[in-house]
Specification:
The chain is 78% helix and 0% strand. The chain has one domain. By secondary structure, it is an all-alpha fold.
């Protein structure tokens, strides 16, 4: 029975890993259709409980859903199998594109293709900010924290410290309002003395690559697009291993492949350290998710009912939005380099907001526009 369930978990999540275009929301919708409607593995309430749990721990939400469901269906073996089968198809496709990028990326055809894709990526990020912001910014406190996080990021404050400071600020203020009826300040946690981003270049090493992605996977809350802030802070600013353009190329590759956006780590790892670097980067960024799910799954009922944990999550979400907005501005300046790219970004944004066009088709359209521009 267990082996049959394990095979079912492997088959389902490998299939979803192959066809899972469209980002975390699309992935979770597919999982609900398969596990609640078709296979009857879970009830709607059980599925919603898992969605809530993934929002309370760091890491990629849709990957953690695969790990949670695998654990509930087939135990510890299912936990590993569900996550690995969802990740591997995306990793392999990104690895193949990374190889092609290294070999052909400097050719005019590849350059113009990415020239058209990058503005679409910016539009997708802005659209995600718009949708997430309407849910996450719930009042003056969360709005103020969002703006403050943006300002402090531009001032050079460490992004991980900002993420936790935002979460703690909202948690403390909201709960003190309830307990004492007055506000003790928007930032009760002192942030003076938090390290600023270093501008010095650091020699590349495999151990630093693995540990950096392990750190990112251990602390990254919110949408996969928040990954941009962490990648830029470490690999562009702190280490000097990538340029802004290379980072946008990595995000673009993550967008045009199925599965979790976090496989951007596979691309960066390959660019910096070949196949061993790709494997280490992928392992580093996803490993914490398996650990967090294993620890949190039995605690879901308690986490869900905690007012303090809920307020912390609200604060982390708006801090994530602030980081996303700041990095979107920086990357937009690097990719919107003329009237043609600005036009692509505007058209993409309108199609996303007004007509709900799938982001995969928009990226394909951006690539085609870049190639046509090169030809004509």
């Amino acid at each position: 029975m267990l082996s049959k369930r394990l095979a079912e978990v492997a088959g389902l999540f490998f299939k979803l890993g192959v066809i899972g275009f469209g980002g975390p929301a699309a992935h979770i919708a597919m999982m609900r259709d398969e596990t609640v409607n078709r296979r009857k593995w879970l009830s709607d309430q059980e599925f919603l409980d898992l969605v809530g749990a993934t929002n309370l721990i760091p890491g990629p939400n849709s990957t953690e859903m695969a790990i949670h469901i695998g654990f509930l269906r087939a135990g510890w073996k299912g936990l590993i199998t569900g996550g690995v089968c969802f990740i591997v198809p995306a990793m392999l496709s990104v690895l193949a594109l990374a190889w092609a990028y290294v070999r052909f990326g400097s050719m005019p055809q590849a350059t113009w293709l990415l020239y058209g894709v990058k503005p679409v990526v910016i539009a997708i990020i802005v659209q995600a900010l718009w949708g997430l912001g309407r849910k996450a910014v719930k009042g003056s406190l969360t709005a103020a924290v969002t703006v403050a996080i943006m300002a402090l990021y531009f001032a050079g404050i460490n992004e991980i410290a900002l993420l936790f400071a935002g979460g703690l600020a909202v948690m403390v203020v909201v709960n003190f309002r309830k307990l004492r009826g007055r506000v003790w300040g928007i930032f009760p946690v002192p942030i003076i003395g938090i390290g600023v981003l270093s501008q010095a270049s650091i020699p590349f090493s495999m151990s630093s690559l693995f540990l950096t992605f392990l750190k990112i996977g251990s602390v990254l809350y919110g949408s996969g697009y928040v990954l941009l802030a962490f990648l830029r802070a470490d690999f562009v600013v702190r280490y000097g291993w990538l340029t802004d353009r290379q980072l946008l190329d990595a995000i673009a590759i993550g967008q045009i492949t199925p599965g979790p956006l976090f496989t951007t780590a596979t691309f960066i790892g390959y660019i910096l350290g070949g196949t061993p670097g790709a494997i280490l980067a992928t392992l580093g960024i996803f490993l914490p998710s398996f650990i967090f799910v294993a620890v949190s799954n039995p605690l879901i009922p308690k986490i869900r009912s905690s007012a303090w944990a809920g307020a912390l999550l609200d604060g982390v979400n708006v801090a994530s939005l602030g980081l996303m907005a700041a990095v979107s501005w920086q990357l937009g300046r690097a990719s919107l380099t003329g009237p043609f790219t600005i036009l692509i970004a505007i058209v993409s944004f309108v199609l996303l907001i007004r007509f709900k066009v799938n982001s995969t088709w928009l990226i394909a359209g951006g690539a085609l526009a870049g190639l046509l521009r090169a030809i004509f």
